[in-house]
Structures are given as structure tokens and as C-alpha cells.
Amino acid sequence: FELADLVYHRDEMPAGQIDDLMDIFAALDASGTPPFANHKELYGCIDAISPERTWECISITHADVNIFIDGDPSVPAWKKATYDMWIRDPKCLIQKQLSNPEVKVFIDYAPRQVFCNNHQQVWSDFMTGNWAWEQCNKLSEDQENQGAMFVPIILGSDKTTVSVATGNNEYWPIYISTGNVHNCAHCGHGQAVSLLGFLPISKSK
Fold it and tell me: Which InterPro entries match (predicted)?
């Protein structure tokens, strides 16, 4: 990991120079085996690193907080306050969901259209909808997207108060999932839905 950090992060060594460095390591090693075969193997090792899904606290304010006039009685206190929002890395959560072997047979890797015997279209899972089909058609027009997988993100929350915070705030849960997973997997508690964070809600009026 120290070598990967040096050549990729700290030195930002080009791919060709990484290959040359691996050749030098191979020549110096008695067995002729370098730490990595080439830059592709190094990049693959870095991509395979799974960061911890730790919690992070971010501060949020009203979008117009900078234009409020101090002392203006028409502006409620909750609009001028700063709130702590606890959240996890959404990318890590989505990667965990899509790599979960329990739902691998319940994932749509591309949009699909389903029709009954009478030729009527059936909409069931998210990727059977017209929106997913249309979005993929638009994305496919860009050659750089060829071979990529369309992963729509679905966020949700409810008014269930999971924790009463200090002061006039309470927290509501925020959930994250993908549109690729079938509805039956969402309802089956197969880790297809993850807790993304807690949204602070002011109890002030």
C-alpha cells in the first residue's frame, strides 16, 4: 500500500513510468517478480480497496441564510440556524448493495420492457419504466458511456423520529437504494436499502 500511495497518489506517476518501475523491481528481485505486474494491476489493487463506511457530520443551513437581515422579525429562527446532519458515503453504500450476492439474481443491469400476451406493457420494477428506458437511450448517445451501467439512485425518508436531539431538533432517517434492484428484494430486507443518514428537522414553528 505504501508503494501504491507513493506512485499513484503522492507522485502521480504516469502509467508508462509505473510499468518501467515494475520492470526495474523485477530485475532487482531474485525471483524476477515485481510488486505489481504493471500499472493495470496496481490500479486494480487500488480500486479493490473498500473504505470504511464511517459516519460524517456536516453542517447545513437555509439556502438564503446569507441574505437574511439581522434582527428582521419576519425571518423565523429556524431559517437562521445551523444544523448538524449525520451521513455516510453514498457511493460506498451503493457499491455494497450491488456487490451483495443475496440480490445478484434480482438486479437489472439494463432497462427492460415487459409485455403481456395481449401486447400490453407491464410496469413492475423500476427498470421496466419508461423513464429508465429513455435515460439509457440518451446516455448511449455518448460514446464514452458505452459499456457503462446505468444506476439510478433512489432516496427516501419518513416522519419517523428515530432520535430526539438536543434543543428544538429531531432526526428523520434517510434511506438510499438503486433502481436496479427488483421490488421483491427491496421488501426482503436483503441489504438492498441502506440507511444513508439522519436529517435534522426543526420543531420550531
Answer: Plavaka
Nearest to 110 by CA among 148, 155, 153: 148
Closest CA to 99 of 201, 203, 205, 190: 190
Task: For residue range 102-153, list pLDDT tens digits in order.
Answer: 888 899 999 999 898 888 888 889 999 999 999 999 999 999 998 899 999 9
Looking at residue 161, its amino acid is T
Within the chain, strands assigned E span 55-60, 83-88, 114-115, 121-122, 153-157, 163-164, 169-178, 194-202
Quote the pTM value: 0.64
The number of C-alpha atoms within 13 Å of 158 and in the hemisphere containing its C-beta is: 5
Question: Cα dihedral sign for 37, 42, 43, 46?
Answer: positive
**How far is 202 from 113, CA to CA, in rounded Å?**
43
Q: Domain limits of the chain? A: 1-48, 56-200
Which cell is 57 given? 457530520
